[in-house]
Amino acid sequence: MRLTEREIDIQLRNSTGSVFSILEKAVASEMKDGELPIRFVVTESAGGRLRCELGMLSGCARAVARAFPSIFSFRKRPVASSDKFNIALIIPTGVGAELGGHSGDGGALARLIASSCDTLITHPNVVNASDINELPANSLYVEGSVLTRLLMGEIGLQKVAANRILVVIGEHEEDYFRESAINSVGAAMVCLGLNCPEIVVLSNVERQLKMTTTFSASGRAAGEISNFDILQKILDERRDRFDAVAIASQIDTEDRYREDYFFKDDALNPWGGAEAMLTHAVSLLYDLPSAHAPMTESKEILTEFDVGVVEPRKAAEAVSVANFHCVLKGLHASPKIIPNAHECSRPDIVTAEDVSCLVIPDGCLGLPTFAACEQGIPVIAVRENKNIMKNDLASLPWRDGQLFVVENYWEAVGVIQALRAGVWPASVRRPIHNAQITTVTDLADLERRPPKKAAHPIPKPPLAHAT
């Protein structure tokens, strides 16, 4: 089985039905026998036309296909809970986000947002920094497809004290890198209290799990993965022995991409796209937490590729060898995935009903954003977190007062605190505008509705500079 990406165009204008049924039908028309969609990104949108990039698993047997949930399945939440204020923080992988698009450089942001809510729900791209992971204590660490399915109303998340983590280490020509990954597990066992029932090391098998960096037409970091069935067989044979799976393997990357990443300010992290493809497939198939760490490809790269003093966003990778501890720490207490959680009625399970707000970089459009729009979840889009996506989020059919476009994450936290306090954010800014007054004299007046304002940019004073 292989994981690859494909570009497709979808026309929303003049289409009928829900956005998810339109997307599912359009994607299905592009699928061949044995192909299943596992990842969906809108890279550019204009005039009702979506330019999309689709991650696919091909070569699937019928039994595997039946086990995969549709990534477009959507259940509308009947209510929005007000008992807790829980935030979903997403910084998509591979889109060149200024903040959170490098090596776990969204970690400080995660700590800030977590201090403003009861529970933060986020994904590895935000906090995984090679051998560093400053995951806030009140956070739920979930793979990107799991967070998407939560917002789509398809699953719930149940907090756990700890997981049994199966470790899978890919083939490597040099023992040093396999041993470094194994030593990372040992260190986590004694420092973190990790429960690892088994480490499976792939060595001299007939077909290896092979991961390769690619870039899509939009410039987004993507990947191709061959022999996924090797990993599937390992997991199938041990299914009752673990609660989460941590994978370390090489990602074949051209030297020019690696050099660009460390030496050019605008270069994308080349490894995250392939990792997201792999973990999406694992978590979708097994309903289990999963995460991946890239193994350095050779000692030559480790010792002779002298990066010197690098930009802080990339520093965690410059000081790491195994790049694995962030994965082990994140998965240690990653929540249990509960399918059909709406049937459980348990207070300890977080569902879409419990998500109070979604925070994303402005311009990023995919299933989480569509889901939040349909669910009535407030969305805060941050302009300062620039990226390569070309989407006008204000064009979506938001409810009045649902989308807030802010300049930076400082401002986002202010909006979060206002929403949590039940204070309309614009009410604490000046000038303040009068409410619209509509006089109704007959039935015809009721049919003349004023247009809704889709986005709510907050009035901007001069930015305050820290001193």
What topology does this entry show?
Blueprint: E1 2-11, H1 19-28, E2 36-46, E3 49-58, H2 62-67, E4 86-89, H3 107-114, E5 119-122, H4 124-127, E6 139-141, H5 144-151, E7 155-158, E8 164-169, H6 175-191, E9 195-201, E10 210-215, E11 221-226, H7 228-237, E12 244-252, H8 255-263, H9 272-286, E13 290-295, H10 299-304, H11 315-318, H12 325-332, E14 336-339, E15 349-350, E16 355-361, E17 365-366, H13 367-375, E18 379-382, E19 403-406, H14 409-421, H15 443-447
Parallel strand pairs: 4-5, 4-16, 5-6, 8-9, 8-12, 10-12, 12-13, 16-18, 18-19
Antiparallel strand pairs: 1-3, 2-3, 2-17, 7-14, 7-15, 10-11
Short description:
This protein has 467 residues and is α/β, with parallel strands linked by helices.
The computed structural class is alpha/beta
Report mean pLDDT, rounded to a whole number. Answer: 89
- Biggest pleated sheet: 6 strands, parallel
Beta-strand fraction estimate: 15-25%
Provide an overview of this structure.
This protein is an alpha/beta fold and 467 residues long. The protein has a domain at 2-67. It has 15 helices and 19 strands. The protein has helices at 19-28, 62-67, 107-114, 124-127, 144-151, 175-191, 228-237, 255-263, 272-286, 299-304, 315-318, 325-332, 367-375, 409-421, 443-447; strands at 2-11, 36-46, 49-58, 86-89, 119-122, 139-141, 155-158, 164-169, 195-201, 210-215, 221-226, 244-252, 290-295, 336-339, 349-350, 355-361, 365-366, 379-382, 403-406. The strands form four sheets. A six-stranded parallel sheet has the order 6-5-4-16-18-19, with helices on both faces. Strands 8, 9, 10, 11, 12 and 13 form a six-stranded mixed sheet that branches. The chain has a four-stranded antiparallel sheet with strand order 1-3-2-17. Helix 6 (175-191) links the parallel strand 8 (164-169) and strand 9. Helix 5 (144-151) runs parallel beside helix 13 (367-375). The longest helix is centred in the middle third of the chain and has 17 residues, at 175-191. 47% of the residues are buried.
